[in-house]
Structures are given as C-alpha cells and as structure tokens.
C-alpha cells in the first residue's frame, strides 16, 4: 500500500511505476537500428493477448520511482530516450518529458493511444489495438502508425487506422512475433501492392538484444 505522499506523486507524474530501463538499439519502426535509452513504465489495461511484456500490466508490481532518478540514468547514455510500457499514457508524462527535454534529450513515445496525450514529444509512435482504440488527439499527432499483424483481418484494421491518422504519419505493418513465419510473407506482398505502407520487423529479437 503506497503512502498518500507517494500516491500523490504518482498521480502528478513526479514518480512513475518503473518496470525497467536499458540502453539498446531501437528494433522497430522508423528509427530501427539507432541507439536509444528505453524507459519502460508499468501499468496497462489494453490487454493484448499476444503482448510480450505482460509483466508490465500490473503497475503495483513496479516501484514508484522519482522522475529525477529516471532522467539522471537516461542522461548517461543516449541522446534519444524512448518511453514505452505497458501503456505510458496511463500516467501524466509532463514532468518526465519536461525534465528529459531540459537535459537535451530527444524524447520518443510508443503508445497504443488509448489515453489522452500528455508530455512533450519529439516522436510519437502510435500502435493501435482493437480492444481499446486510440483517442483522436493521438491520431492527430502521431508521427508513425505501426499496426501489428497477427491475422489476415488485421490488414483491414490497419487500413481503418490509416484513415484515422493524420496524413503526415508514416505507415508500418509489423508481424506479431509468434506469427512471423506465417504473416511476414503476407505483409511483404501487401506492402508491394500498397506501397504507402512500410515493413517493420522486431529486429532486436533477431539480434538477441533487449
């Protein structure tokens, strides 16, 4: 049970349920292959059945950590910081991103878009989920739309999402890891027939890095 003081700090975004933080190579989407420091925040109720970090869902399992500590760690490594989850927009990202920007970091987010946008971002990667669709504000501000392809119907979902996102967003289709052998050839064919899309792969898993 959190004290009232800590609970208040979490609600204000001064402390966040930090699951893990690590320096690695971005494995997905537009910035694939670039070095980045990842901050994984606990807490998510979107509930994707194929999620590969389900241990992030329960925020209570991850210790509330002051954003100053998070920023201090991040500043030792990369100019680019990626905030992910879980679903980071479950929490107010204003304090974390303000302090990261003050430390001259480029700040990216990976989000399902299910909650209103908070914080100050240099790049917004929107990865929408059927179970809890994005709010319009995130569609309007996304730099990148990354749709996970688990089955053939997901191509229809991807096109629906592409209609909702702003016209400047770069469009990606990414095979869900457990279905990569089956879905990757279909994605390749789809992109060749629909070249507004690009292929994204979880290259970090092929490289056996975090």
From TrEMBL:
Chain ranges of the Radical SAM core domain: 31-210
Ligand binding ([4Fe-4S] cluster): 44, 48, 51
Cofactor detail note: Binds 1 [4Fe-4S] cluster. The cluster is coordinated with 3 cysteines and an exchangeable S-adenosyl-L-methionine.
Catalyzed chemical reaction(s): 6-carboxy-5,6,7,8-tetrahydropterin + H(+) = 7-carboxy-7-carbaguanine + NH4(+)
Cofactor(s) demanded: [4Fe-4S] cluster; Mg(2+); S-adenosyl-L-methionine
Record Pfam families: Radical_SAM
UniProt binding sites for S-adenosyl-L-methionine: 50-52, 86, 127-129
Assembly and interaction partners: Homodimer.
Protein name, per record: 7-carboxy-7-deazaguanine synthase
Organism field: Flavobacterium pallidum
């Amino acid at each position: 049970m959190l004290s009232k003081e800590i609970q208040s700090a979490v609600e204000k975004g001064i402390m966040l349920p930090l699951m893990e933080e690590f320096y690695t190579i971005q494995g997905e989407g537009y910035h694939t292959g670039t070095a980045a420091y990842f901050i994984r925040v606990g807490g998510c109720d979107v509930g994707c059945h194929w999620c590969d970090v389900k241990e992030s869902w329960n925020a209570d399992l991850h210790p509330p950590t002051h954003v100053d500590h998070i920023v201090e760690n991040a500043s030792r490594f990369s100019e680019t910081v990626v905030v992910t989850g879980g679903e980071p927009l479950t929490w107010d990202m204003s304090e974390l991103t303000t302090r990261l920007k003050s430390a001259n970091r480029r700040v990216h987010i990976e989000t399902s878009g299910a909650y209103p946008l908070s914080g100050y971002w240099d790049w917004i990667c929107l990865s929408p989920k059927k179970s809890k669709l994005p709010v319009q504000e995130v569609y309007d501000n996304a730099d990148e739309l990354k749709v996970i392809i688990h089955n053939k119907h997901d191509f229809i979902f991807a096109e629906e999402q592409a209609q909702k996102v702003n016209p400047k967003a770069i469009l990606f289709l990414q095979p869900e890891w457990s279905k990569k052998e089956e879905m990757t050839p279909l994605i390749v064919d789809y992109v060749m027939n629909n070249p507004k899309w690009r292929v994204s792969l979880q290259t970090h898993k092929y490289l056996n890095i975090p």
